[in-house]
Amino acid sequence: MNALPLILTVFIACAVEAVEALTIVLAAGITREWKSTLQGMAVALVALAVITAAIGPAVSHLPLTPLRLVVGALLAIFGLQWLRKAVLRATGYKALHDEASAYLREVTAAKEAARESRRGINDWYAFTLAFKGVLLEGLEVVFIVVTFGTNQKNVGAAVIGAAAAIIAVTITGIAVRAPLTKVPENWMKFAVGVMLTSFGTFWGAEGAGVEWPGNDGALLVIIPLVALFGAACIFWLRSRKTAAAAPAMETETVGS
């Protein structure tokens, strides 16, 4: 695979996680105390760096064929879950993820929490909130970077994509000092779901011994097919919802 598609795939996937982490950090920093918030974020980043340094080389030394089978299966599972949620949200069967509402919930909780100092940290709540938010979202970024980079034997390109996403989201968040509510997050998650499912299917099948026609070029067929499948599900569910709503509207018209 060319490095550019790998970078773009990792960029989009990591940008989604970075937006969610940014929401938590902003809520802690603006509502509580920036110093403790940044300390929590820094400790989480150090922990993620250690985890990446420990896992990356270990994974790279595993046999590639069974690794692709296991990683492919995991990516396909995660991808289908992301795709399912994106389809349900796009059709109204599941509420859209609202960063503004998530931000307000975090702000409300932060305002109600008691202020206490621990272990040299002025505001322990702000510290732990930022630490947990960055660490949990960051672990998903690490998983994406390690799996994509190792399977394509180009960890450097995966790191570039992840770093670019984190930097872009961070700079934007600092500039607006607010959660990124205008980001089309659901469609980004749809794209991530398509990519994870496609790569998972491709690598999992390779790990099981399948030889794809055109090798990596097969992804140029798999990715559009998965995207078309997701789009078809959206079209079908929207049609089904419209058909179900029509009799109810006719009943209300007759009754009135």
TrEMBL record:
Name this polypeptide is given? GDT1 family protein
Q: Which residues cross the membrane?
A: 6-28, 40-59, 65-83, 124-149, 155-175, 187-205, 217-237
Lineage here is:
Bacteria, Bacillati, Actinomycetota, Actinomycetes, Streptosporangiales
Q: Which domain of life is it from?
A: Bacteria
Q: Which UniProt keywords apply?
A: Membrane, Transmembrane, Transmembrane helix
